[in-house]
Amino acid sequence: MDYHILREFADSWVLLAMFVFFVAAVVWAFRPGSRKQHRDTADVIFRHEDKPAEEEART
User: Fold this and answer.
1) Mean pLDDT of the chain, nearest integer
2) Would 52 be classed as within a structural domain?
3) Residue that wins the pLDDT comparison between 22 and 42
4) Which domain holds residue 29?
């Protein structure tokens, strides 16, 4: 295997694989029903803002 063969492979199939991975990541991030999960994750730092967490919530 020389550089030319690896370069041809990278220019065609690896580029296609990276594009498919990118599209799959975007579709997964914006899938239907994920808004609630993203909002819950964003609000996690504000859950126990008023008082400390209860003992059973800590474990």
Assistant:
1) 85
2) no
3) 22
4) 3-43
